[in-house]
Amino acid sequence: MEAYDLVVIGAGPAGLAAAVAAYEAGVKKILLIERDREPGGILEQCIHNGFGLFYFGEDLTGPEYAARFIQRVQERGIAIKLNTMVLEVTPDKWIIAVNKADGLLKIKAKAVVLAMGCRERTRGAIFIPGTRPAGVITAGTAQRFVNMEGYLPGKEVVILGSGDIGLIMARRLTLEGAKVKMVLELLPYSSGLTRNIVQCLQDFGIPLLFNHTVVAIHGRQRITGVTIAEVDPATKKPKPGTERLVSCDTLLLSVGLIPENELSRQAGIALDPVTKGPVVDDGMATSVEGIFAGGNVVHVHDLVDNVTREGEIAGRSAARYILNPKPAPSLKINTKAGAGVTYVVPQLIHPQQMAEELVLSFRVNQVFKDQKLVVALATGQGHKILGTKKRMIMVPGEMQEFKVKKEDLWAALGQEDSSSPLELTVSVPEEGEDHDV
Amino acid sequence: MYDVVVIGGGVIGCSIARELSRYALRVCVVEKEADVGCGTSKANSAIIHAGYDAAPGSLKAKLNVEGNPLFTELCQDLAVPFKRTGSIVVALDEKEVADLEALYERGRKNRVPGLRLLDQTALRALEPHISDQAVAALYAETAGIICPFTLTIALAENAYANGVEFFFNAEVKKVYALRPGAPRFLVKTDHLCLETRYIVNAAGVHADNISRLAGGDSFYLTPRRGEYCLLDKDQGSLARTVIFQVPTKMGKGVLVAPTIEGNLLIGPNAHNIEDKEDTGTTAAGLAEIIAGAKRALPSFDAQKTITSFAGLRAVPPQRDFLIYADSKVKGLIHAAGIESPGLTAAPAVAKLVREILAADGLKCKPKRNFNPQRPPVIRFSDLSFEEQSKLVRRDPSYGRIICRCETVTEGEIIAAIRRPLGARDLDGVKRRTRAGMGRCQGGFCSPRVMEILARELKLPLTQVTKQGGSSYLLAGPTKAPEETGKKGATNNGSL
What we know:
The complex is a heterodimer.
Chain A (H helix, E strand, L loop, with lengths): L1 E8 L3 H12 L5 E4 L15 E3 L8 E2 H14 L3 E3 L3 E5 L4 E6 L3 E12 L3 E3 L15 E3 H11 L1 E2 L3 E5 L3 H12 L3 E7 L8 H8 L6 E3 L1 E7 L6 E6 L13 E4 L2 E4 L3 E3 L2 H5 L24 E3 L10 H20 L9 E5 L3 E5 L2 E2 L7 E8 L3 E12 L2 E13 L5 E6 H8 L9 E5 L10
Parallel strand pairs in A: 1-2, 1-8, 2-5, 8-20, 10-18, 12-13, 12-18, 13-14, 21-28
Antiparallel strand pairs in A: 3-4, 6-7, 7-8, 9-19, 15-16, 16-17, 21-23, 22-24, 24-27, 25-26, 25-28
Helix pairs in contact in A: 1-2, 1-7, 3-4, 4-5
Chain B lengths: L1 E6 L3 H10 L6 E4 L16 E2 L10 H20 L3 E2 L3 E5 L2 H16 L5 E5 H7 L9 E5 L3 E3 L1 H14 L3 E3 L6 E4 L7 E4 L4 E9 L5 H7 L8 E10 L10 E4 L9 E4 L5 E4 L3 E2 L10 H14 L8 E11 L6 E4 L6 E5 L5 H18 L25 H10 L6 E3 L4 E2 H9 L7 H8 L12 H12 L18 E2 L18
Parallel strand pairs in B: 1-2, 1-12, 2-9, 5-14, 12-20
Antiparallel strand pairs in B: 3-8, 4-8, 5-7, 6-7, 10-11, 11-12, 13-16, 13-17, 13-18, 15-16, 19-20, 21-22
């Protein structure tokens, strides 16, 4: 048996940031556990630039961004076990893990930070019909082959889904000599960042077809082609008569990411059905006392800078809990996704322990132009606007933020009786709707 | 010179091979795919049926009821997980209760043990998530669930251990009867020429074609496609038994069943097609089985589907198995038209084929050294903490998890490749170890599994396939440094 104050599961950007932040907050006995052969997580295969614009004010590649945090971990002498898989986390914070060198490990922690990241949605999850040949591959797996293993998965490529990894891989495969014939997107807009559409598709003349999908996969041994079709934007169903055959030797899927929460589920942590990640409070605490979470395991981010920020919050909160273990205060505000909004993280705010400023992260459910964003607190007495903001454009593919100041929240709470339910709603109300109740 | 060439390495061919390996005979199996169990045997309902479905007096009924009890010992011998969960047929309205009674009566005629009619209360107690529309059910306690490719692989391994030879990537192209009236053949594939006394035709949907090649009886097998969805393990506990609906003339209808690994399986539909290789799924078909399964079990979440697939049943003209000695060609024995309940019947089919061969003149002298047992396969995730610790200390490769979703270790993958008739491709590893069979469907582990395959088989990574043949997974290496415009750059990183 080994014992640590803090065990961080996953040494990607969230886990590295959490470990460093906890160390800075006074906790020294920390163990990072990483299942891959090196720390850095998915950043190690993201050899393109665009990382760190917010956090460092610099334009870095993925490995460069990761290296800065790996260095901080090393400078602080934080322990890390690589090639180590966590098999189980219990609610009382025992961790069972395994690797070749140590064999089976039983580790006791005072607090745990979950930072397992996310995985890609697959062909099965989106019901693409047809045969099951080789050459149907998720964009992230293809990225690993190209950037880390040095192999090209195919030469004539159709990409389904305009998520960021798909867009990045369209450019990467083109640079490696493959012909990327098209990118298909089921929705009338992309779920990727605008900068990626410009830099990865438009700059290379790769067509992006909105309202299109793959309706069949062909080929017995290796994929020989796909049938694509236009979809009705209202029903998302293929329009009969619009089918056409496109030959290819590879179908790359970039159809979404799902937080990886097998361990969270085992530990009995409450999950949000929309984000598919743990329900967290303003300190990234999960529903199980002493277990925190941050980064893509909570909800899928667009920018690593935000993953780092969440990891830091989780690490600091874990340190606070380790140094002074007590349950969260009872006064709480639930956040809620209102009209036009898909989800809000954190799902819970404890006004008595929150930091001076809290960032609400959320996604809108459609494209909004010149619309007003409203954050309002509903209390037993009624409904107070905490803030509104006009935004030129909001798209589902770009995570939105709204900063809430502790003093503003307390002002809105007033002499609130803590027994009545409190709800903070983020919404994009339709024009003309009256919100000044 | 072989005594018997078995054409087809599905569950039927492998059962027959294993049965024949009990005797002092020279036997081989020729299989057109790169592995055993690549046809109907890998895409079916994974069920051991009780036996009330088939018409009384049919070969199907007889071999189903004979085959079912054999699974207890067979699965023990072969170390194949098998669970008698029982099955139910649910009546979704009062009218269908009469159908249950007819099935019960048929079961009684087929001598199926352990049949009971359940009222709504008893049904609800057995299957808490069953539809509110379900008014009664026929319960069959002997039905069970099994992994059909684990079974097929185990049969093949045991047959091999007892002396049966296997040839893969060997599609039979020609069959010559050497001495008309006497059992003596030449079986030709692209690379092989095998002389044999007897041929067992266990070629699944292609068995009609094999009979034609050999100049035997003419029959046509209709490929009937059935589509399935396999759901995440978090849905697996919604069904405790195999849940059928009242059958139609096309088959037993859409079922919902837990799998032996804890997933939920729904399907199949039944559509006759032309192409005997067309195992593609269709959007309409998948929608059909989801809607069909919801009638009996409304609460499963179809969004939790991790993969969909289709299999082909070889539907014989008279809807009964064709297991007999050919009327025209001496020495040609058919085990054809084996649609459902073929998996259940397989061990009984094997015994029947052996009897037919013996009646046809093949001397079957029992081998004293026949070993019915297959060494068990180590499954890391099934072991206790202490057993896992011991295993990793003994062999550290069991300490490296390759498949995160199903917790499969490097040691298990190496063992699957090194076993007799071991895995040669990604799907072979998947069927033997479950690596890649979980919710991420190989996204994380396939590069690692390919690496292990390449290392063990001494292949370049670009030669590793998904399922043999030309199913290569990679197109080639990325550009060399020279090509990217940096003249003089070298691979070792120094400039």
